[in-house]
């Protein structure tokens, strides 16, 4: 599956998560194109051109960073079809940073009841099978997973953002993670989640120390939750964000 098709499919899935009755036909109406063409995009039977990508970006109301990323994926797909060299590993790393589901699938491997079965993974993650398959291919290319017989071996090293990843893509990663929570919060019972906030006046000089405390807390909580019999995949998001303007 092409990178741009993956991204478009993930945009469709976000909407379907909010409304299980949402269909490809409804998505096509949003894009103002034929449902058959949308299916061709998803099935990788028709390339997404730059002109089509610009139109799709407008219809989906993507912000500037999302639009830039989507058009970047279309450009990479176009170069590959032309036989031009593309640094696939580098671009796979970018996808790992920006799109939340890659790391989630990698983490799913560490659950006690994991099955190396794309249909099973799709059901557990609430994602299309084709998206699971293409994500798995990226994880293999990057060396995060390796299949030996019936056994899946994972790279235990954490995924870290490198200094050469543009900051606007890191912001897109944060947005993607938060957007996934917003899309699914109504489907998750309060017993299985915790989303809370507190508003307070602060001394800006204490922010560097506060960020350090958040990082420490996040690591300790992740270490605590990772012990014992692991059966679910969770994400921990802690936001310290200004409400007043300077």
How would you describe what is shown here?
The protein is built from 11 helices and 2 strands, in the order αααααααααββαα. By secondary structure, the protein is mainly α. It has a domain at 3-154. Helices cover 57% and strands 3% of the residues. A two-stranded antiparallel sheet has the order 1-2. The relative contact order is 0.11.
Largest sheet: 2 strands, antiparallel
Estimate percent helicity: 55-70%
Gyration radius (Cα, Å) is: 19 Å
- List low-confidence stretches: none
Distance between the termini: 45 Å
Key structural traits:
mainly alpha, two-stranded antiparallel sheet, 11 helices, 2 strands, 57% helix
Provide a quick synopsis of the model:
This protein is mostly helical and 246 residues long. The protein has helices at residues 3-18, 24-31, 35-42, 50-59, 64-81, 88-98, 100-108, 118-125, 129-142, 167-184, 207-225, and strands spanning 145-148, 151-154.
Q: What does the secondary structure layout of this molecule look like, with pairings?
A:
Blueprint: H1 3-18, H2 24-31, H3 35-42, H4 50-59, H5 64-81, H6 88-98, H7 100-108, H8 118-125, H9 129-142, E1 145-148, E2 151-154, H10 167-184, H11 207-225
Antiparallel strand pairs: 1-2
Helix pairs in contact: 1-5, 1-10, 2-3, 4-5, 6-7, 6-9, 7-9, 8-9
């Amino acid at each position: 599956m092409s990178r741009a098709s993956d991204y478009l499919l993930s945009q469709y899935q976000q909407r379907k998560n909010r409304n299980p009755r949402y269909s490809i036909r409804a998505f096509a109406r949003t894009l103002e194109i034929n449902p058959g063409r949308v299916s061709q995009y998803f099935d990788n039977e028709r390339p997404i051109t730059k002109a089509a990508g610009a139109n799709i970006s407008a219809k989906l109301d993507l912000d500037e960073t999302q639009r830039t990323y989507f058009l970047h994926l279309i450009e990479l797909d176009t170069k590959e079809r032309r036989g031009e060299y593309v640094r696939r590993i580098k671009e796979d790393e970018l996808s790992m940073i920006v799109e939340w589901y890659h790391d989630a699938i990698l983490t799913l491997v560490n659950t006690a009841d994991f099955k190396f079965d794309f249909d099973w993974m799709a059901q557990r993650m609430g994602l299309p099978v084709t998206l699971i398959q293409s994500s798995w291919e990226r994880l293999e290319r990057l060396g995060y997973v390796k299949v030996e017989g019936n056994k899946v071996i994972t790279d235990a090293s954490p995924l870290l953002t490198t200094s050469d990843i543009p900051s606007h893509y890191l912001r897109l990663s944060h947005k993607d993670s938060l957007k996934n929570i917003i899309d699914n919060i109504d489907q998750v019972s309060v017993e299985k989640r915790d989303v809370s906030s507190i508003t307070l006046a602060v001394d800006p000089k204490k922010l560097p120390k506060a960020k350090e405390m958040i990082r420490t807390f996040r690591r300790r909580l992740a270490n605590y939750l990772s012990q014992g019999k692991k059966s679910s995949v969770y994400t921990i998001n802690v936001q310290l964000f200004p409400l007043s303007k300077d």
